[in-house]
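Run folding on both entries below.
>entry_1
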Amino acid sequence: MTASIGATIMVGASAMPAMAQELLGQPTPGAGGIALQPAASELKHDAIWFHDVILMPVITIISLFVLGLLIWVAIRYNKKANPVPAKWSHNTLIEVIWTIVPVVILLVIAIFSFRLLYKYEAMPEPDLTVKVTGNQWNWGYEYPDQAVPEYISNMLPEDEAQARNVPYRLAADEAMVVPVGKTVRLLITASDVIHSVALPAFGLKTDAVPGRTNETWFNAERTGVYYGQCSELCGVDHAFMPIEIRVVTEAEFAAWVASKGGSMTAAAAEAAAAEVAPAAEATTDTAADAATSEPAATPAAAQ
């Protein structure tokens, strides 16, 4: 019986990572849902560390301290325990303390906060660029480096989501596809009203503003499907704008690009054309100068 119980525990323990793996990139119900969504990129790991190691202890200590003060004041200075109220109006030492201590706390938080914000802004050299356009009410994705034209991503209907065994209101009919381990730059804009690209597993939330292009980035650590949503109130169908990102191997990404009519060599061809263009312009300018100088020499020869 002991062996049977041990085997059951081992089977259950081995199933837990599999369940966590299946739920990677989407909300986690149950006890695991009280924490932030598991990280799948470097930025999200840093954001979780900042939340768990810096913010939560500070918040907990302040909350317990204020609760203790409230209980102490309620017991020590109620009307029954303190029928004659004190007459003093202020205390210089206390006023200095409650001014300096919050400033110090905010400075400590700011040091780690600015470091994290800088990491979000200091994007490494991107391997891939995806232009994301928010529409009422869907997303458009375009890959300029691979010459993949814009395609529209809509939410899967409920019956189709159930048939595919994917989360309803999170799954889309067309996913954004990116290769694993590559720095992906997102150029985010909107065509009508303000939307917002929110990707919890990657630690991203960037507004999509009409007439403006915002930039952010991520580098997915592992393959899989990751879900996000529009997190800006953009109209009546705001709740039906999911973002689905499929992180695949480089070979699978190349095959997907080819299926969309694009080319993995498009970026290289554009770079080569950019290098050839200045040389071509210089050749044209030289020829133009020579052609201009010839008519000036003709009258002298005639004389």
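>entry_2
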Amino acid sequence: MAATAKRRIRLHGDATVATLMLAPAAVLFSLFFLWPFARGLWISLTRWDGFSPPVFIGAGNYLKLLRDSLFLGALENNLIFVVLILIFKNALGLGLAMLLDRALFLRGPIRAAVFIPVTLSFAATGLLWSWIYNPVVGLLNAALDLLGLSGLQQSWLGDADIALYSIIAVDIWKWLGFHAVIYLAGLQTIPQDLYEAARLDGAGPIARFRHVTLPLMMPVVLINVILGLSGAFVRNFDIVQVLTQGGPNHATEVVMTLMVKTAFQDGNMGYASAMGYALFLIVALACVALVGLMRRSKVDL
């Protein structure tokens, strides 16, 4: 009985110490995440211009989203972002990582050069590509003219049909090195003995990739897909804002740029908050569905 009592006292003391150590983090988490999240959710249920008292309207803002052509168009642009970003960032990132994993001449400097775009700020990236895409003095049109391909010259950011894809190309260029580094780290964890065994069994490069590399890289693929998914929905605001501000004629508008305009130009904070929470719900459901799909495919997460 005495030993049991001492054990209970010790466990109680450990729990007290653990609570005291976790309390500062819990307070900060509540102040800077839980409270803003709950407050923002409340605002999304109101009509509020940021100055006068909020007027509760229930789900009115969310119902309005379903018939708002600007929001639906911005969401469609987000979905195009997602599809193209996930395909090209992962396919090119994995291919680049496999190339950099080889014993190349000057492999270290090449790896550093690949990662340089990731370190650039969005402002610097936007200014750089604004100059490259300039239809009059831009580097891209000049290069096409030099190669005798002047028929392919475009107003890359001024044409509503191609402006969105031009921005997507910039986003891929900026983050390709980031995803390649993650894939490279995953490739270096694969035992070389597996490749040697596959060679002895007569497996060629494609068979080794299909039966050795790809299955063992699936957890890394999941990480890159989730990062790309969240980036295509949420982290594309800066590059769109710097390059086109959603133009021309909303052709490159995404939910984040439309949300900022709605909040600070139109003064409709409640409706802008509803856009944000709708986007949050879409991203959360997509990530949950993706993780569930991976687990159903028996990927070791």
